[in-house]
Amino acid sequence: MSALATILRRRPARLALVSVLGLGVLFGGAAAANAAMGQVRTQESPLTVRSGPGTGYAAVGTVAKGASLTISCRTKGTRVSGPYGATDVWNKVGDGRYVSDAFTTSTEKAPQCSSTQLRTVQLVAFKGARACSSDERGYANGRVPASARCALYGDKGESLRPRAAAAFNALSMAYERENGRALCVTDSYRSLEEQVAVKAKRGKWAAKPGTSEHGLGKAVDLCGGVGTFGSDAYRWMKANGPKFGWVHPDWAEPGGKLPEPWHWEYRG
Ligand SMILES: [Zn+2]
Question: CATH says 123-266 is which class?
Fold first, then answer.
């Protein structure tokens, strides 16, 4: 802190900014991601602020025409038409607060949002994305009771842990709005017995029973095109999954030890 104190003494005019950066360093380097900010001026009155980067997210407020907003980062979402043409760019103006770039003029361009910055999307704001259970207790792999799992949107019989399911359902609904159908699920939670059966059938393509992410109820195997690297559906998942906490793990990437385009995990 002594270095920071020195800076504060030398640069009194920047005190507020330096304090924020100092806190960022203390709390795990968040400052690096947030240091570059942009400014936008709204051109519509009032402009709706949404909980995520798209028109499918809940409206969480409005801002008056001409207001100056500080944006921490930009990301892609629903394509919107406004006074400045059509764009799929959305500006993050706070935690769980986004405005479409179609209604704003930028004086400074903010950087692309990192997956960490996007993770603040408020999942409960999605229609139908409420968790069916609040039981998030730790259970042994493959031993998660039905009461601690929630059904997946559009797929009878498939289930995940409550938060993972809520996030997945929101993601699946977003996919459906853009592509006309929900995400197709081959496999989700797997009990220990099911993991043993899958191992016997698939050999090296399945995890050792009792170690699979599927046994924790936080992984899905997807169909409907996602099972092919580079397909439209796969690229949609790569672009949008992280906004909902769903990522494609490194080991399953094309250069990973077990390339599996269909396997996705919840890290929210
Ligand atoms: Zn899998």
Answer: alpha beta
